[in-house]
Amino acid sequence: MPLTSRAGVDRRRSTATGTGTLAALVLVAVCGSSGYARWAERSTDPNSAGGWFLRLLAWPTWRLDSSAPLETLFTDGLRALLLIVLTGVLLYLLPGPQSAPASGLLSQFFSGWGAYVFAAGFAAVLATLFGDDPSLFAAFQAAGTGAGYGFFAGWVVGIASLGGRA
Predict the structure, then answer these.
(1) CB within 8 Å of 2: residues ≥ 6 apart
(2) Which of 78, 91, 115, 138 reaches 20 to 30 Å from 162, CA-CA?
(3) Which helix (H) or strand (E) holds 117?
(4) What is the pTM of this model?
């Protein structure tokens, strides 16, 4: 009996973990790019809700330019990478709708959203502790910023994880 084939499983149907992680990857790759961050900085009003939100989306900024110090490039890249990896891990570990008391799409949505909030907070803490100025105070401040980003951007991951099997 082959180990790669399971009877009754539709291989075309996506998993909540896979689609949520893919959404996190797209958010970080597009909105975290230095091009998007420069555009948001130049083209949006920080005193409007829309401008503030578009600037917030650039929080997991990763850079490939050599003008920034090496420590900053490492810390920013680590934060972006950890955000994607931790989102996938937390989406896998958090209880899906099949085991939650309130099963259904709402449970799946909040599971994906919550995973992104926690992943952003943890990624911020870990990147700060491995950065050029590791302090517990800076890590706590970064966790607040990361969790705030996850709260306002995590609904995208929540929506992406809807309808997928756990």
Answers:
(1) none
(2) 78
(3) helix 105-129
(4) 0.84
Question: Which 3 state secondary structure label does DSSP give 81?
Answer: helix
Q: How many domains does the chain have?
A: 1
pLDDT in tens, 132-152: 888 999 999 999 999 999 999
Gyration radius of the chain's alpha carbons: 18
Q: Is residue 47 part of a domain?
A: no
Domain with 76, as residue range(s), is 70-160
Give the three-class secondary structure for 7: coil
**Rounded Cα gap, residues 116 and 86, in angstroms:** 8
Residue 105 contacts by C-beta under 8 Å, 6 or more apart in sequence? 97, 162, 163
Can you give the pLDDT at residue 127? 94
Single-letter code of the amino acid located at 45: D
Do the domain assignments include residue 6? no
Question: Is residue 166 included in any domain, yes or no?
Answer: no
Closest CA to 143 of 166, 124, 161: 124
**10 Å Cβ neighbour count for 159?**
17
